[in-house]
Structure formats: structure tokens, C-alpha cells
Amino acid sequence: MNTEIGTSVDSSIVTVPELDKDHKYHVFISYSSGDSIWVLGLIHKLEKTFPSMKICFHERDFVPGKTIIDNMVECIQSSQKTVMVLSPDFVHSRWCLFEANLSLLQDCIVHKDIVPIMLKPCTLPLHLSHLTYLETDDEQFFDKLSQVLLSNNDPMARSLIHYQSSLLYSGKTLLTLTAVNEESESWQPGVFSSSPVPDSLRAVVDNPQTYKQAIEIINEVKPPKSCLRYTACVVLICALCLVLAPFCITFTVAACFTQVEYKNAGLGSLIFLPIAITAILAPIIFIKTVCWNKQEAKRIRQKMKMKTCQANLLLYDSSLLVGCTSKSQLFFVYIKLFDCMRTFQTAFGYDNVLTKNMWEKAISIYSSDYAVCLAKKHFPFTTTEPPGHLKDGICFCQYINTQLAES
Ligand SMILES: [Zn+2]
User: Fold this and answer.
1) The domain that contains 61 carries what CATH number?
2) CA of 245 to the centre of ligand 1 (A)
3) How far is the CA of 401 from the centre of ligand 1 (A)?
4) Same domain, 215 and 331
5) Using the 8-state DSSP alphabet, how is residue 167 labeled?
6) Other CB atoms closer than 10 Å to residue 69's CB: what's the count?
7) According to the model, what pLDDT value does residue 268 have?
8) What are the CA-CA distances from residue 221 to residues 186, 213, 310, 328, 377 (Å)?
9) How far is the CA of 393 from the centre of ligand 1 (A)?
């Protein structure tokens, strides 16, 4: 990557076109925060070369309190052109926003010029792959960019991006979130970062507080307080069991034979009763101790699944469901549940408490597993029911019906 942004443009011979009444800026520059140093250098150079050029970029012009997507829409609408600074970071973060809210962006971008700049090699999203982009290591890079930015806006001729609203579809996985303590012991619940809202979710999560609360619910799962958390304790108990059990079994068997021999199994048996109990309990304690880790890991996973379902009670309003199969990974899926909710209303009645309760019960039991099935694109069954509310998939009410039928 070329970090130098060379210039040979003579600003005295070029004029920056006047802005019409619909536009506040000549250009909106969209980039990932990972590339901000290079981009701020470019902006500085552009503003120095063309003092009358109005440039919009998020670090200066985004309105605090608004979602990124709202800010982006506004900036794109009020700018004549949009520059996208492409890099692996951009593709992973910003592009998801475009994808996630294409229906919203379609109207405002389709009539604008898009100028892609390849800053760092990356695999381009499908809808940018046919574009000719400017390369930063091209010696003429700055000249070419200036030329494009100063040219008249000719959106129809340039119609660079052809949007397909299918890019944002119900059932799409928006994010796989990994726990910050991913590598910890299996009995330690996963802890997830609750802020900021990841870029790929900002388009659908209107209120960062909702996301924070949802993650905090999942983070509520506490590790067990058992002394078996300590390896030394496990080793000590196992060693004791291994020593005590054979000794007690031998003693009990020997005592039995002695008692039988002397035909005095009454009072005398009380002497070896505690030893017999120890002989029985020691192997059980041994097995429990050895298996503790596995049992706790399973319990933690179940608790986390329960909490994930609770978090979904907050998220489903934003057409978002979260699911977990392991302690260290959450899947966020964009899913519109409106039609499935209507099925509940048809079944239990409109505007009543029962419908609300049944719906929330369904979310708090099935939503996590359902989200995981959507994310992994695999359902543990095939449904013969008529098409549900999800195009090319199993909708939430179909999923519940099948689960109820199987249980
Ligand atoms: Zn449905």
C-alpha cells in the first residue's frame, strides 16, 4: 500500500464545481476506522489543494446520537459523490452496513456516483466487483481521484452499483460474536463485550442501550462456586478415593467373612458399617469429581441458552435474534417475525394478554436454538408443512410446531 498521496494537480487551473441546492458536500468519504490515518491524510491533502471543496466524513460530520446508518444515509444524500475506501476492514464492517440496509440506501445511492479506492487488497463484495477502482499505489492516483471528484455528477451514465434488495433478507446471519474469554476453562461462562454495538448490527439495532442490556443478560451467568474449580482439590479427592476405596472394600469383605464364620452378624456388623458406606461412596465421589468439569460445562451452556432466549425478548423488536450453542459464541440473525406473530394472534386472539404471554414464552424457550439453526443453515428436521413465513427456510412458527410435535 502506498502511504504517500502524491499530487501534481495545479489547483489554480481547476475549479471546484458549485454545489446545487440539494447538496451540502462535494464528496462523502466512507471508510473503516482502521484506515483513518490514511484517509485523514487524503482529506487534508484534498482540502489543501481544493480549499473550496466540501468534504464529509464521519469523524467530523456524523451527528452524535444517531445510528451510523442514519448518519450515512444523510451524508450520502447531501453529498454529490461517495468515495469508498476499500480494505479488508471496510469489507467486514462498513460493507455489512450497506448490505444490511440496502432498501434504505438503495434510493439515495443509486442516483449517486460511487468512487471506490483500493487501499489494501481485499476481496470485493459482489456488488463492487465489477467496478473500476482507483489504486493508491498508482503514481497518478491523486490526479485521477481529483479528476473524478471535480467532474460533473453524471449518475445515470455511471450507475456503478446495482443494488439487489435480496442482500438483506430475513434469515441472514449478521454477526458471529466470540467471547472475550474464549480460551478459558469449559465451566467458565463466556463473557461478551456489550459496547460498542458491532458495526454489522448497527443498521438494525436502533438503540445501543438495548444491545447492551441484551448482552448483559447473557453475561449474568456466573461460574460455579465449587472447590472442584481448583485442580489441586480434584487431585486430592481422587487420590483419597483411590486409596480409601480398595482399603475399605477389602476390610468390609474380610469383616463379612469373619462375621459369617462366627455367625454373629448382629451387633458386630455396626463396626464395619461406616467402612462399607465409604467403600460404596468413594467410587461414586471419584466418578463425580472426574466428571465435574463436563457436567458444569453442560450446565453453563444450558444457562447461557436460557439467558440468550431472555435477551431475545429485548432484541426481536429490532428483527434480531441471538443464539448460542457453545459458551463462547453467539450468532446474531436478522429475522422478521411479524408474520409469525400474526399466526399467534390468529390462534390466541388479538390484543390480549394470553397472546402476548404465549409469544414471549415461545421466544424464551425456542428463539436461541432457532437462531442457531438459521445461522448454521441447518434444521434438525425437514418440514412437510406448507410454506411458512420465511422465504427458502423454516419460519419461527413452523419451528415451534415441529418442536412441539416431537416433544
Ligand atoms: Zn411463521
Assistant:
1) 3.40.50.10140
2) 57
3) 10
4) yes
5) G
6) 19
7) 58
8) 13, 14, 12, 12, 27
9) 10
Question: What integer pLDDT is reported at residue 68 of this predicted model?
Answer: 74
Same domain, 236 and 330: no
Q: Which three cell numbers stand for residue 151?
A: 467532474
Distance of CA 43 from the midpoint of ligand 1 (Å):
49
CA of 391 to the centre of ligand 1 (A): 10
Quote the ligand 1 centre to 173 CA distance (angstroms): 18
> What pLDDT band is residue 161 in, cutting at 50, 70 and 90?
very low
Ligand 1 centre distance from Cα of residue 348 (Å): 15
Distance CA 296, CA 229 (A): 10
What tens digit of pLDDT does each residue of 16-56 get? Answer: 888 888 889 999 898 888 888 999 999 999 999 999 899 99
User: What is the C-alpha separation between 279 and 56, in angstroms, rounded?
Assistant: 78
Kindly give the distance from the C-alpha atom of residue 392 to the centroid of ligand 1, in angstroms, as a whole number. 12
Residue 291 belongs to domain spanning = 227-296
Q: Do both 110 and 136 map to the same domain?
A: yes
**Mean of pLDDT over the chain:** 80
| Cα 257 to ligand 1 centroid, rounded to whole Å | 70
Tell how far the Cα of 339 is from the centroid of ligand 1, in angstroms.
Answer: 6
